[in-house]
């Protein structure tokens, strides 16, 4: 079963969506494996991911022109040359690792090893290989990489915070970060991106057998920042990754998580929260590659879009690709994307894709919906004496609450709730 990638765009109160306003599709494991996807005019079939090209060599990739499926939503002119080789590195990221989060953080890492390594370090690449030109450019251009290794279980009360500071206004930097959990290790990690500049980066999450990683990547960049990042998730036998992406700031942010299962029993949860203001472009492109039996994945991304009168349109893109290969029997997977349009000048493109090559699975499905406030919810709240402005805020809080409440760092939850309140102040919602 392979849904089409490009449904005709539909108008919803001034916003634009590329999937039906309320679409959901379930797969019956009792049905035989799907036949190869058929293409139709204006709607290319799902890419054959088993033939997905990967390389560390930037010159192995053609320069994107904007017509490629992988780049068709991205405004290339706003990448400042990251895609065509014209962006020269003239700055560096500042990376700081501490134990704890916020005011309680300290430099006592409690057995966690932090290393600065050269490109030739044999561990680099364990998470995955670049699959687009910008990721390959980042691999070819980073000066040194940061490798963080956790060898034993850490308490939930002691999260690791990785503070990443941009190179500065007008500067360009390339970076590489690898977080490794050894067998049966456990950790909660917050990667907090801030500052200005143009950045291309690869992040590797290498989780060994029986290990558990809960990681939150926060992109709270300054208004001028451009960040293009590839996240490579390597999941060992009976390992667990809970990955949450929070995207709030920046002029353009493009994130591309890829999940690779190395053995049976892997369990991955991908959650996302994004809030786009006028002029912002926030893009999330996911690939979950089920290549071994008896693994699970669940994806839930939620976004809100708004813009003040006179702003250029806020634009978000969510592409969710899930591939279940013929050898990946007993797979369980589901993906969900929801977008809330708060003003007329907002566009949300949402494209869930599911490709199944075997009928011997437990379950698989996807859903996508984009629209305005639920009038019934607003009416219910206003009928009980709550002013309309406050009612709208309550609806947005509830919309994002399911994602925020999963984060097990109280100070970070408080910060995100305050950031959403500040976003709503922009247009007086």
From TrEMBL:
Transmembrane segments: none
Domain SUF system FeS cluster assembly SufBD core: 171-399
GO biological process annotation, one example: iron-sulfur cluster assembly
Region (Disordered) residue spans: 1-47
Feature: compositional bias, Low complexity: 29-47
Family according to the record: Belongs to the iron-sulfur cluster assembly SufBD family.
PANTHER family, A to Z: PROTEIN ABCI7, CHLOROPLASTIC
Record's protein name: Fe-S cluster assembly protein SufD
